[in-house]
Amino acid sequence: MKKSILLFSLSVVLAAGGISSCKDSNGDSGSPTTGTAELDRKALLTQWADSLVKPSYQRFGTKLTALKTQTTAFTAAPTATGLQSVRQSWREAYLEWQKVEVYEFGPAADVSLVNHFNIYPTDAAGIRQNIASGTYNFELATAIPQQGFPALDYLLNGIAADDNAIVQSYVATANQRRYLTDVVAKMDQLFGGVQAQWNGAYRSTFINNTGTNAGSSLSLLVNAYSRYYEHFLRTGKIGIPAGVMSGVAAPEKIEAYYHRGALPLQLAQAAHATVQSVFNGRAGQPSLKSYVDALGAKDSRSGQPLTKIINDQFAVSAQQLASLGPDLYVTMQSRNAAAVQAYTEMQKAVRLIKVDMTSAMSVSVTYVDNDGD
Predict the structure, then answer these.
(1) DSSP of 239-298, one letter per residue?
(2) For position 372, what pLDDT does the model report?
(3) Poorest-confidence range of 5-14, 35-44, 99-108?
(4) Are 15 and 351 within 8 A, CB to CB?
(5) Which pLDDT belongs to residue 368?
């Protein structure tokens, strides 16, 4: 969908009265004209920085450090016990990653953190070639699917037939040990730089950029939030492997394909729960929900607050997502219609976020949707 079409669609929605709001339509000022505490954008941005982004990054950083430690130990002396330990650290870090992936704006967007951390399916053939040659550059576009958590999935779970064969492959191949180490080191380096900026000057830059125009902090976070739900969660975790776009189910394109079992669905559920918690925030504290409520945005079809409609749809989507367990790979093989239905329910939330919420907040959608919906 082209951006011009999208902006036209937003205008049509507003003209048709899809939502109503008591907000001032001028979104370029640093403070809302109402002057109410509920509409204090700086307070909202401060809450995001200090209670969402920075603490989430801290928790993920701890998990990533543990993964690096276990990787170092395993590559120094590959054993079956060491393999289990590094796998456990990978699983824990991967689950924690679902709680920070949504913050792809500012320093994270500058280095394309998501691209380096979680583009799947991984390029197994490319990884094998890199190991064989001993030469690779993780900054090349072609190397994006050869790194991050999906590459670690292959390196720890799929590079040989069973655990004993995996261990022996590391014992026998120095380049393979180095590749595993380099993948984790690249993740540590990139994330460390992003976290350092949030712990430094970027926090002040973020909370003081209080407009709603493109490039403002509110626009950056709202667009990152909407894009994450639409592209990375709805489409990436469910839509593509369910074959919604292609018409053919492709369960081999799920997250954590080589590990399988319960983990792929756990990752999707953790991501969805993060989207919900980020929207609602903490009781009594500024959040996207409290901000939209303060604008008085309502769904004109029902007269109910827009945030209630969004939360209700989140609940339906989460319930449908849970029905895909316990093994997402098996579900997409045996009852893929349930996965398609989960996508459909999430698509309803996409409209509420991307059209209704952004319109109420006077925030323009700045990313391009190529999914054709």
Answers:
(1) IHHHTTTTSS--GGGSTTTTT-TTHHHHHHHHHHHHHHHHHH-STTS--HHHHHHHTT-E
(2) 47
(3) 5-14
(4) no
(5) 87
Is 46's pLDDT higher than 80?
yes
Alpha-carbon span 115 to 282, nearest angstrom? 30
Distance CA 183, CA 72 (A): 12
CATH for the stretch 39-209: 1.20.1420.20
- Bridge partner residues of 19 (DSSP): 299
Round to whole Å and give the CA distance between 240 and 260.
Answer: 16
Query: Six-digit token pair at 99?
Result: 């709680």
Rounded to whole angstroms, how far apart are CA atoms 16 and 257? 44
Residue 258 exposed, middle or buried by CB count within 10 Å (0-12, 13-18, 19+)? middle
Q: What is the pLDDT of residue 16?
A: 36
Contact (CB, 8 A) for 207 and 106: no
Identity of the amino acid at 175: N
Helix axes 163-172, 174-198, angle to 10 degrees: 90
The residue extents of the domains of the chain are 39-209, 211-364
